[in-house]
Amino acid sequence: MPARPDESPCILCREIIETNRAGLSFPLFGRTVGIEPFYKSETCTVYVCVECCVGIASNRVEFPRNRPLYEVVHGIVKEAVAQCPGFLLDFWNQLRKNMELPRMGIAELTQGEIIPPEKRLKAG
Fold first, then answer.
1. What are the extents of the domains in the chain?
2. Distances (CA, A) of 89 to 26, 59, 99
């Protein structure tokens, strides 16, 4: 995620998302349709933190079904989390940080231990 100009709150949990942390941004603007003269508002951006994204994708965060904008956000977040494994890795690292465990990256997870095969017994 590109760096944000400052620390921004998550629109769901209201926790501050630090500028070096991952998240999902939603640029929003309003524009008139069927009305002259044409009007378009300034674009503002709202953010959802990784923890809330994972909660939305796993259906732990419930949206009111009578609010269509929430349905759109829910679909976008689920697809983003499913397409980008970085959300889950960042969530996992944040959980480890909260539990005061050391941070691990993908390199540490993918490097395995090479175990030599056992010696075969002679056929009897």
1. 8-102
2. 21, 18, 15
State if pTM tops 0.70: no
Give the length of the chain.
124
Q: What angle do CA 24, 33, 11 make, to 5 degrees?
A: 20
Phi, psi values for residue 57, rounded to 5°: -65, -30
Residue 75 tokens read as 């679909």
Does position 107 have pLDDT exceeding 60, yes or no? no
Q: Which helix or strand (DSSP H or E) is residue 17 part of?
A: strand 16-17
Diameter of the chain measured on Cα atoms: 94
pLDDT band at 68 (very low <50, low <70, confident <90, very high): confident
